[in-house]
Amino acid sequence: MQLKMNKMLVTLSLALPLATVTPAITDVTASAAQNSHKVTHHKESEKSFALDKVDNYKKAKTYKLKTKDIKIYQALFMADQPVVSFSHAKTVKVNDKKVRVDKKIVVKESKAKLAKILKDKKSYKAAKNVEYLHVEKIGWIKASEVK
Question: Which residues, other chains included, contact 105 with Cβ-Cβ below 8 Å and sequence gap of 6+?
C-alpha cells in the first residue's frame, strides 16, 4: 500500500507542474501569433519593390552626405520572393557628413504593380533602377542622398 501511494505521489508531483504551465504557454504563443500578425500588416507609408541586385562590401565604404538631415528607411526583405519593402522610419540629423556603408541594393521602381514587374520581363526591364545604401548603425538611405 505504501509503495502504491509513493508511485501516485511521484506521478502527481511530475504531472501537476505540466498541467499548470500548459495553459500559460498557450496564452503566450497565442499572443505572440497576434503580435507577429500585427507586424506583417503593410503600413500606409510602406512601399514594396522588386529586388534586382545586392552588394555586400567586405570593408565598409565611406560616403559623403549632401546634407546633415537624412531620411532613414526601415527595410523588410521577403524570404520567398525577391521583394523588399521600405517604410519611412524617421529623419535623422547626423553630426558628421561622412557615413560608412556596408551594403548596397538595387530595386526596380515602376508605376506598374509589383506582381506584374515580377512576372513580366518587359515591365521588369522598363522599370527604373533605384539604389539604397545601408549605413552602419543608422539604417537604409537612398543613394541619391550621397555625393
Answer: 51, 52, 53, 54, 55, 84, 131, 132, 134
